[in-house]
Amino acid sequence: YIPDGEHLWRFFVAYSAVFVAEHDEKIIGFANVFRANDKAIFLLHKVVVDRKFRGQGVGQGLFSQVVKECDRHGFACLTTVDPENNSMLHVCQKFGFTEKEYKAGYYRPEEHRYVLKRYPSR
After folding, report:
1. Buried (b) or exposed (e) across 55-76, using 16+ Cβ within 10 A?
2. What percentage of the chain carries pLDDT values higher than 90?
């Protein structure tokens, strides 16, 4: 139980596309996307993998499902990444997030982000 986590998880499951990775019938990772209000864009909100399973292809498997869903709908996909998160930047690049814009102070003055965008495969 994580305060507010249960509430957020229920929203994810009810109102977004949630992809899960399991091991021994336990969730070890998830990714979720939801549709933006104004365009044919999915917003990739979270990709989370249990620390014990990182570096084993779990995140790539989740990304594969995300991009398949985006392509199925013909939607672009948008996400933000910490400029120092090299592993996430690498995976995003691998899965076709080719548009990258640096945003200084995106959340707070000291919290910068890259805004990354992937266009659907035709």
Report:
1. eeebbeebbebbbebbbebebb
2. 76
User: pTM for the complete prediction?
Assistant: 0.85
Q: Which residues of the chain fall below pLDDT 50?
A: none
DSSP calls for 16-33: SEEEEEEETTEEEEEEEE
Which residue has tokens 């995003």? 92
Which runs of E-coded beta strand occur in the chain?
Answer: 17-23, 26-35, 41-49, 76-81, 97-103, 113-118
User: ∠ CA(61), CA(97), CA(32), 5° rounding?
Assistant: 50
DSSP designation for 120: P
